[in-house]
Amino acid sequence: MQKPLVFGLFFIAVFLEAGTYGLTFMLPNLFENFGANEKDVGQILGITTVSTLVSVYYIGHLTDRIGRMASLSLSGVAIAVSLFLFGMADSLGASIVIASVVLGFGWGVFYALPPVVLTRISDEKERVRVFSLHTVFMMAGFGLSPVLASIMEKRGLPTSQAFFVVAVVCIISAVLFYILRPAIQAMSEGRGAESRSSLTIESVSAVFRSRAIVPLIMVCLGASVFAGMNNFQTEFAEERGLDYANFFLFYTVTVVICRLLLTGFSGGRNPYAVIAALQYIMFASVVLFMFSGSNPSLFILVAILFGVGYGASYPVLVAMAANDADNNYTAHTLQIFAFTYFIGIFGFPLIAGWIIVDISIQFLLVLIAVLALVEASMALKRAIENRSLDS
After folding, report:
1. What is the C-alpha separation between 110 and 327, in angstroms, rounded?
2. pLDDT by position in tens, the chain (length 391)
């Protein structure tokens, strides 16, 4: 296959499977059908967190045995199984727990491996562009699956039907990843022997001692902010009499536009300064959301600003994690990057669900704003350090 076709099919497969995470935003609606609440959603996602972290930690052992593309194909099958189980559930029973465990495995593999594969088949100078394209398709899947679920609900279909639709789509994604195995292998030839990906105490210690430690911490904070704003957006919107589909639609469109613009951006002289500016916009969007009330125009503005802030900064942050890593530990760094991301993305809803039920939504928004401010300030500090080194 020609290189553009390989990248195109790879990104389409990413888009199809990425809708899975967007459906986790619909779990409050799905669980409401059998009398569960936000705290229950958080606990189930807590189980998913543990499964995800275990799978990310051991993913190197899997890929060393069957390869990265075969592992990606396996992730699509696992996710499809989990979505079918979620869709068929009628209570908080064993099937929900099994679904959450299988989802954690599938999503951990799916999220961690594409950046590693893309790093292997791209040059350092083009990584911001390649990672931007990757996250465009990823975010399109994230954001459009809740919109699909909303359209289906408005037509009188149960939320569970959306889970079945995305499950079928994930099977298609698994087939695409499997078909691409020989082409990806051919593109990797000539770049030297692939290092083993298994995480060890030595490799983890080396990653934590490198400059990549800063983006690793930052991605955990940003994932917590993202999860806080998105996982319970259906609840936020319902409390204010707003349509959650508007948030996801405008957020997704904004992110896609920003990341497409980033495909022509190599990071500039000081990429962390760009990250800091964008993340202060993310912080401002959360603060605006705290005081925007039931104003639909401000609701859309919050979605747009959050899309600019979080959505545009993330691919640059991924590229910085790869570029700041020791060359001998790039794959390990990206696996740990996914590990810390999942601590925030699936772990924070456990805290958020408890806060919503036992304290208040407003307190949760204050916490989200604080996390956004800390992340932006870390980026600014690194930008200042880099400028001092350059001078």
Report:
1. 23
2. 788 898 899 999 999 999 887 887 788 888 887 777 777 877 888 888 889 888 877 887 788 888 889 999 999 999 999 999 998 988 778 889 999 999 989 988 898 888 888 877 877 667 767 877 887 888 788 878 888 888 898 888 888 899 999 999 999 999 999 999 988 888 876 555 555 556 778 888 888 888 889 999 999 999 999 988 888 787 788 888 988 888 888 988 898 888 777 666 655 678 889 899 999 999 999 999 999 889 999 999 999 999 999 888 887 888 788 778 877 777 788 888 888 888 888 788 888 888 888 888 889 999 999 999 999 999 999 989 877 766 5
Which amino acid is it at 320? M
Global pTM?
Answer: 0.73
Q: In Å, how far from its chain's centre is CA 7?
A: 20
Cα 93 to Cα 39: distance, rounded to the nearest angstrom:
15
Residue appearing with tokens 């601590």: 343
Full 3-state SS string of 147-192: HHHHHHHHCCCCCHHHHHHHHHHHHHHHHHHHHCHHHHHHHHCCCC
**Residue 30's closest CA among 251, 283, 326, 231?**
231
